[in-house]
Structures are given as structure tokens and as C-alpha cells.
Design goal:
The complex is a heterodimer of chains A (about 325) and B (about 260).
Chain A lengths: L8 E10 L2 E11 L4 E5 L6 H9 L6 E6 L2 E2 L4 H6 L1 E4 L11 H11 L7 H10 L15 H13 L5 E5 L7 H16 L3 E5 L3 H7 L2 E6 L2 E7 H7 L3 E6 L13 E5 L2 E6 L4 H11 L6 E6 L2 H9 L18
Parallel strand pairs in A: 3-8, 3-9, 6-7, 7-8
Antiparallel strand pairs in A: 1-2, 1-4, 4-5, 9-10, 11-13, 11-14, 12-13
Helix pairs in contact in A: 3-4, 3-5
Chain B lengths: L1 H6 L2 H19 L1 H23 L11 H32 L3 H4 L5 H27 L10 H25 L3 H17 L12 H7 L3 H14 L6 H25 L6
Helix pairs in contact in B: 2-6, 3-4, 3-6, 4-6, 4-7, 4-8, 4-10, 6-7, 6-11, 7-10, 7-11, 10-11
The complex binds adenosine-5'-triphosphate (ATP) and magnesium ion.
Chain lengths: ~325, ~260
């Protein structure tokens, strides 16, 4: 078989229960080599659980996962060689400095001194050069996050999984990180990303899966998902005035006198403007915006990606 | 270390790196992990030998001071082998940094070997340090060096393995400390570090024979004086059996992913 045909990640019928809690409920997903893939979903959807199963940190209750064709249970050594995971939790080893820790990490994967140049390249690309000799304990939160990302890359894995790598990091690192990750993607590495910043996913990911309560509710290319949603958004700046009640059913959000209305058809603009005129409200500014991934997410998942609605419903047992 | 790096086959480089990291981990805090147990043992030596010197004669021709040293060395060696693997595991579990090892191709058996080897080295380092300091003060013979080595190795391996089990099982430092305070301390103190079990009433002599620490210390002391409460061969068999039993349990826990991979 042609090696290029082996999927980077093949997930088949994965279920995971924690006692009564059915955290993953039959996940099937194939990610091809070289993809930049987004795994989205509200808090508690099961993204990290799925990633931990890929990484061998959790055992699935049912189902199979293969990384680059290697089963994560039966052939775990080859599977883990092929995988680099940035965990969501900010963990670190307090005994060592950044460079020592990265060299140890590479060593765990069987890499020797020949790998040191790559370690230094990772350090540089993540803006850690100044901190390379600093003990992990003394790094700021964002710097610890960088080191955590670096740790996943030291053995040059063909498949890289980043579980919310940009949580709590500044704009500079985000840009630096995405430039580096894009470069790795161009070099052929497969990237799997979870994030709650949907603009990030929209610009970076070619394909996304949206998860909700342990299931995949949408799986398509980012552009298909966006085009499936015919609507556009109308953003109105009304100053002090409030929105006429007839327009409330269309309201997506409104704050500081700026209201965003979701349109399913363009002639709704006419309607909106006439209602405003009737109510004697003058429009200070008006914009027509394409629907974004946030809208797709809202329509599929029924809540905001940022997890404002934090008490996510949980599917309990088989009842 | 560069030379060793190149000699080791890639499949074992991960194990060797983990071992090396475990060594650095305690060496970075050597004051606490090596110097402090050495000092404690020397204080024991100073106080007990002064207080008991003229009251206790365990073996003929062996002054009490000399009798005491092998027991103290073994006691510290055992405690430190245990402390190394257990505290490293509990700490990395609490910090979460254990995932860095769990994400790698290092197998459960290799994981065991790396932690065990580091525990043995820490035990030996503390044991040797006490020996080298103690011989400045006391004349100490060595009759059978090989037995000394064998019992030091088996003892540190046994306690290193026990430390791995305790480290995997414990979720908090208190739980690990409970192993130390309620299992290891009583068993070492009741094993004949400070006395020969022949000086005990028959009932307590019989009880001592169920204590694996008694065999480790008695066999180890045989290497120094050529005299012991029981045959070193018997001690060897008992200690080895305990080691194999605990190693089997530790490997079983690691293989199943107990408390490490849910
Ligand atoms: N070790 C565990 N034991 C019990 N329940 C768990 C465990 N890990 C996760 N869960 C539960 O499984 C569900 C999925 O959690 P998971 O961490 O995968 O969500 P997520 O999609 O990564 O969320 P977030 O966006 O907040 O990171 C949650 O209800 C969570 O409470
Ligand atoms: Mg998560």
C-alpha cells in the first residue's frame, strides 16, 4: 500500500465512560496526513478525552485508534513515536530548566545529542531563547505554555495535537506559534488543534469537527461549513436607542448600542430598516457581515464557543 | 555521559534518559536527599554508641560501635531507596508532569527499571557516604565484601520497588508518608539495627523472623563481621523472594496502568 494512503489518525467507534458518565459516544473520525484539523466544541464536549485516548493516557471503553497506521494499544511504541501532544493542563517538571527538560524529553523518544540542534530550533521558534536556562518553576504562565508546546515537538512527530495551546498566551506568541505550526504543516506534519477561539480555527483549519456531548455533530471543510449557513449578519449601530421589539427575534447579540441581527434572507434588511424608521430610530452605522464559524457553531451546538454557558448538559448512562 | 549515550541502543535510550533524569532529580537537592540522611545516621551512631557502649556486647570481639554501623548504613540505604522512587512518583503525579513520561514509547518494564535503578543508586550513595564517614571514627572490618554488596543491592532494589508501588498507589504526600512512618520505620527499628534478636525474649525473636528487614540487615552485617543471627544464605533466599514478589506486583500495577492510565 502506498504510504501516503495511511491516515494520520484513524478513530473508529470510540466510546469512553467514566463510571456513569458517557464522555465519548461513538466517535468515528479519519484525519489524513498533512491536514490542519480543528476539533471544536463547548466545555465538556469530550475533546480532551478523545485526545488523551490518542495519546494512550486514557484507555477507550470501546473502539480503536491508530496513529499513522499504528494501533495506540497493540503497537503503542510506534504510535507514540508518531505523536506529539500538548496537554491542556499547564504541567511542568520543577527540577529542570527549559533546555534540560526538552533534551530529556527528546531522550525519552530515543533521540540523542544529534537532536540538540532541533531542540534549539524549537526553543528559538517559540521565543524561549532567553529563558532556555531558566528553571521551569520561574517561568510565567505563558512561558510555561510555550515550554509545554516545545515539549511536544522535540521528537519531530509527524502528527501534532495541540489541546488549547493559546489559552492564556499573549498576541505575540499566538502569531509566533501559528507561524511555526503552519511551517510545520507545510513541511508535511499533520496538525490537530482544539481551541475556543473560533477565528483561529477559521483561519487555520482546512477541516473541522464539532463535538457536543461526546458526539461529532458536524464534520466538514471549514469553507463548506461556512457556506452551508446561508445567512449573513447585519450589524447596526444605534447609539442610545434600543431595538424595536419586532426585530428581537432576529437578534444575535447586542451591547453598547451595537446590535447584530442574523439574516436568513437579504430582503430582511428592508424590513429591519423600515421597522427602525417607524420607531424613529436613526442608524449611525450599518454593516453586512458574512456568517463566521461562531455562527455555525451556535447553530449546531446551540451555545457560544467560549463556553459562557458553562453548565453543559451531560448525557448520563444509557437512560 | 556522552560516550554512554552513544553506546546505548535507541530502544534503551529512553530508559537510560529516564534513569539519568531521576538521578539528576535527587542530585539537584543532594543536601536534602544525601547529606541530611548521612548526618542523621551519624547522630544515631554518636548517641547510641556513647550511651550503650559499655552495656551491650552483641558479638564477641566486636565493639558495639562497630556492630551498630552496618545496621545504620542499611537502614539509611533502605529508607532512601524507598524515598527516591516513591517521592518522585507522587510528586510528578501531583504536578501532572508524569504525562511527559507516559506520552513516550518507554514501556512499563523500562519505566520500572529506570526508577528502580535510580533508587538503588541513591541508596548506595547514602550508604557509602555513611560508611566513609563512619570509618574515620570506628575500626570496621570487612570479612565478606560480596555479601555486603549483594545485600545492599537486594535491599535497595526491594525498597526501591516498594517505593514504586507506594508512589503509584498514593495520591498525596500524606499517604506516602504513612508508608514511611507506619511500615518502614517500625520494621527497620524492630529488625535488629540496634541489637541482635538473640537479646530479645523468645516471642519477639519469633515475630522478628516475619520481618523482611531483619534478613536484609542480618545478612548485610554478616558481610562485615562473618557473624550473624542466621545464615546469610537463608537471608538471601528470603530477601530475594520478597523482592521478586514485590517486583511482580509493581510490574502488574504498571502494566495495567493502575492510577496512571485510566
Ligand atoms: N478523568 C475523568 N474522570 C471523570 N470524568 C472525566 C474525566 N475526564 C473528563 N471527564 C468528563 O468527561 C467529559 C468530557 O471532558 P473533556 O475534558 O474531554 O472535555 P473538553 O471537550 O476537553 O472540554 P474543555 O473545552 O473544557 O477542555 C466532561 O464531562 C468531564 O467532566
Ligand atoms: Mg479539554
Amino acid at each position: 500500500m502506498d504510504k501516503k494512503l495511511t491516515p494520520a489518525v484513524k478513530i473508529e467507534k470510540i466510546h469512553k465512560s467514566f463510571g456513569q458518565l458517557h464522555a465519548l459516544n461513538g466517535i468515528d473520525l479519519t484525519i489524513e496526513q498533512g491536514e490542519f484539523f480543528g476539533l471544536l466544541g463547548p466545555n465538556g464536549a469530550g475533546k480532551s478525552t478523545l485526545i488523551n485516548i490518542l495519546a494512550g493516557l486514557l484507555k477507550p471503553t470501546q473502539g480503536k485508534v491508530a496513529i499513522m497506521g499504528h494501533d495506540v494499544v497493540d503497537n503503542y511504541q510506534a504510535a507514540r513515536m508518531s505523536l506529539g501532544v500538548v496537554p491542556q493542563e499547564l504541567v511542568f517538571d520543577p527540577f529542570f530548566n527549559v533546555r534540560e527538560m526538552l533534551r530529556f524529553q527528546a531522550g525519552y523518544f530515543g533521540r540523542g545529542r544529534e537532536n540538540d540542534a532541533w531542540v534549539d530550533e524549537v526553543i528559538e521558534n517559540l521565543g524561549l531563547t532567553d529563558k532556555a536556562q531558566t528553571n521551569m518553576r520561574k517561568l510565567s504562565g505563558g512561558m510555561k505554555r510555550r515550554a509545554l508546546i516545545a515539549q511536544a515537538l522535540v521528537h519531530k512527530p509527524p502528527v501534532i495535537v495541540l489541546d488549547e495551546p493559546t489559552a492564556g498566551v499573549d498576541v505575540e506568541l499566538r502569531q509566533m506559534l501559528w507561524a511555526f505550526i503552519k511551517k510545520l504543516n507545510n513541511d508535511g506534519h499533520t496538525i490537530i488543534l482544539t481551541t475556543h477561539y473560533l477565528e483561529e480555527a477559521e483561519t487555520l483549519c482546512e477541516r473541522v469537527a464539532m463535538m457536543k456531548q461526546g458526539k461529532i455533530v458536524a464534520l466538514d471543510t471549514t469553507s463548506n461549513l461556512l457556506s452551508k449557513l446561508p445567512g449573513k449578519n447585519l450589524r447596526l449601530t444605534l447609539g442610545q436607542a434600543s431595538l424595536p421589539s419586532t426585530l428581537l427575534p432576529m437578534l444575535k447579540n447586542g451591547e453598547n448600542g451595537i446590535f447584530t441581527l442574523a439574516l436568513t434572507e437579504l430582503n430582511q434588511i428592508e424590513f429591519a430598516l423600515s421597522e427602525l424608521r417607524k420607531a424613529n430610530i436613526s442608524v449611525q452605522d450599518m454593516q453586512l457581515i458574512e456568517a463566521d464559524l461562531e455562527d455555525v457553531f451556535m447553530s449546531l451546538v446551540g451555545e457560544k464557543a467560549g463556553g459562557e454557558k458553562s453548565d453543559v448538559q451531560i448525557h448520563l448512562g444509557d437512560a | 555521559m556522552n560516550l554512554i549515550d552513544n553506546l546505548i541502543s535507541p530502544q534503551w535510550r529512553g530508559t537510560y534518559t529516564l534513569f539519568k533524569k531521576e538521578l539528576f532529580r535527587f542530585w539537584r537537592v543532594a543536601f536534602q536527599t544525601v547529606a541530611s540522611p548521612v548526618l542523621t545516621s551519624l547522630l544515631y551512631l554518636l548517641i547510641f554508641s556513647h550511651v550503650l557502649e559499655n552495656h551491650v556486647q552483641v558479638y564477641k570481639d566486636v565493639p558495639y560501635k562497630a556492630f551498630l554501623i552496618p545496621g545504620l548504613i542499611m537502614m539509611s540505604l533502605l529508607q532512601n531507596a524507598f524515598a527516591n522512587s516513591s517521592s518522585s512518583l507522587v510528586q510528578s503525579k501531583i504536578m501532572g508532569s508524569i504525562v511527559f513520561v507516559l506520552l513516550t514509547p518507554i514501556s512499563y518494564a523500562q519505566f520500572f527499571i529506570a526508577f528502580l535503578a535510580a533508587a538503588i543508586i541513591r541508596g548506595f550513595l547514602v550508604g557509602f557516604s555513611i560508611y566513609f564517614v563512619a570509618i574515620w571514627f570506628v575500626d570496621l572490618s570487612i570479612v565478606h565484601p560480596l555479601w555486603i554488596f549483594v545485600f545492599a543491592l537486594l535491599g535497595s532494589a526491594l525498597l526501591g520497588t516498594f517505593g514504586i508501588i507506594a508512589g503509584i498507589w498514593s495520591d498525596k504526600f500524606d499517604q506516602m508518608a504513612a508508608f514511611q512512618n507506619f511500615v518502614i520505620m517500625p520494621l527497620t527499628f524492630l529488625s535488629g539495627v540496634f541489637y541482635s534478636i538473640h537479646s530479645l525474649p523468645p516471642f519477639w525473636q519469633a515475630v522478628s523472623k516475619f520481618n523482611p528487614f531483619f534478613y536484609m540487615i542480618d545478612g548485610f552485617r554478616y558481610g562485615f563481621f562473618g557473624q550473624s543471627d542466621i545464615s546469610p544464605w537463608l537471608s538471601f533466599v528470603v530477601v530475594l523472594s520478597f523482592l521478586l514478589g514485590l517486583a511482580w506486583l509493581a510490574l502488574k500495577m504498571l502494566k495495567s496502568g493502575y492510577k496512571l492510565r485510566a
